[in-house]
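As a warm-up, study this chain.
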Amino acid sequence: LCRACRRDLCAEPADAMLLHLPLIVGCAWTHRTLPIRTHAVSRSATAVADGASNAATRAAVRMAATTSDAIIPKSVLFGNPEYASPIISPDGKLLAYLRPDEGVLNVWCRTVGASDDRVITKDRYRGIRQAFWAEDSKTLLYMQDDGGDENFHLWGIDATTPSSAARDLTPFPGAKAQNVVTNKRFPDQLLVGINKRDPTQFDMYRCTLATGELTLDTENPGGVLGWGTEDESFEVREAIVMNPADSSTTVRVRDSAGDEWRDLVTFPYGEEGNMVEFARDGKSVLALSTLGRETQALVRLDATTGAELETIAYDPKSNTAGILLDDDTKEVRAVSFNYARTERRFFDKELEADFRALEAAAPGGAEVSIASRTRDEQTWIVAFRRDDGPTEYAVYDKEAGGTVSPLFVSQPALLEYKFAKMEDVRITARDGLELVAYLTRADSDAPTPLVLLVHGGPWARDGWGFNAMAQWMANRGYAVLQVNYRGSSGYGKSFLHKGDKQWGVGDMQHDLSDAVAWAVKEGIAREDRVCIFGGSYGGYATLAGMTFTPELYACGVDIVGPSNIKTLLDSIPPYWGPLRNDMLLKIGDVDNDADFNQKISPLFHVDKIRAPLLIGQGANDPRVKQAEADLLDGGEADPCRVRALPGRGARLRAPGQPDRLQRPDGGVPRQALGRARGGVRAARGRDGDLPARDEVL
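Now compare it with the structure written out below.
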């Protein structure tokens, strides 16, 4: 979970995580592995599910699947979900979820056991992507920025009062809120980090929910990137500090709010780790650490000395991906790992039996996750996530003997179509390094055009599951390959740091080239019909591919990708200050080595572009400026064209606005992907006609 917004990052596409700012800022803290908080009192699963207007039985879902011969409309693939992110209140009386209102995602709510669904929020611009309950079981909280400026504020609204208006709980212009912490023992309060005093650092404030009053709780002494609490006291007793001189990360703790801070453990640059939770007895802490091993293990440390007392869970190939703790005893109940697919190790037999029952009830091959639970853990909202259809939500009622009742389907329109399966594959890079990748094939026995879909970050990863972009392409005759190139996260410290100083012309880009060669050799891709496509770092990799290896690609699509690395780093916000040196160590010293910056920055090599290149650029993007993208625009006669989308930041979508990236006349998409296709329908055994322009891109 994200401590800033409580988003379940394991359920997010990699690029969505990447564009979610705190992940880039401090994956060692803000988006660290956190214990899943347990909530609420028991209500029957039947009562929760009764209000679902579109719940369908599993048999009906399977019967609705039809042939893949149909061209699946973009509105079906990329439209807002009809239902998303269901969360049951801690007391089990209310169910909140996201649903469009006038075309924009907003928070809705219903009383459990009733059909009184009502919209709670009134966002009319960017939409709300995640909401979560305060522990008082009446206040819904959500994060929202202004026009893509990435200065997220924390908002709250009383879900029990129909006339209630949303309140900005952090109403400070130009400031950003993050690090939100709630506590069931203090249901009328929350803690939130705000950089209003100093834009370079976040202090922790205590908020009284009833009045919205903010009181400074813990002032940042300098260099603290994130904060943590001890549950029983709800005091800020943990801090994560990065040393800008050597990029080491230190966990600091204190015995009470009035005591001095002390260093508990330091992770030098090249190591990964952070704290998870204080043990209930106060004598030890749970932490993640690569010290003395290749990947992040869950360990127990002495709370005074920081010495490692016990290795609780470890996998030699992948980092610990998730942890579930008992909310009262702090005992470990389950740990998950994700090399290619999610795997869990259970320390609690009852919990293991629960998951086995849910796996038996899930669609074939689906992965099970907990969306929310009541405080007494008797009612769960669970998600069944698969690769060939929409996420389905159900209610698991332990009090009723473990019954599983359908709740709703995120995008019911997807049930009318048959989708390709996503295969997890292994690719061997030129130096022998194993790369995990995900392949979505077109419906063809012959080699097809290939889209190399590059994830952002780059310190993130792709994962298994339904991917609308991959399904869009596969449905139209393209195979889609997503590669976790070196430098991706989740595979241990060596894999991550093999990407250091390897941008653009180094091994990170070579991994992408090797993936293309693999797809051609395996008979998946046509060698002369390969498109490289990505956003954020994936956009940079697209520009690098088009300039440094132009012979490989028939076209490219870059979405908010930086073309000049020096100017990218110059645009980082003030609160990223301690992280700048860390980024320079990973990327290379573009500050002091102009030749190196020019070597890896595609902006200085645009003369090498041979094929059509489409660039999507948010006019309000604070990180990749429109002026930089405009420098790549070669004019009407040039294959490289830029389309700036007004009112957008790093996320280009805006409700009520066109969602396709195209020139005003629609020409670039047809030119770009049309050249790569070699005939989309021809690749699928149909006539050679092009789809309509808006069906190409």
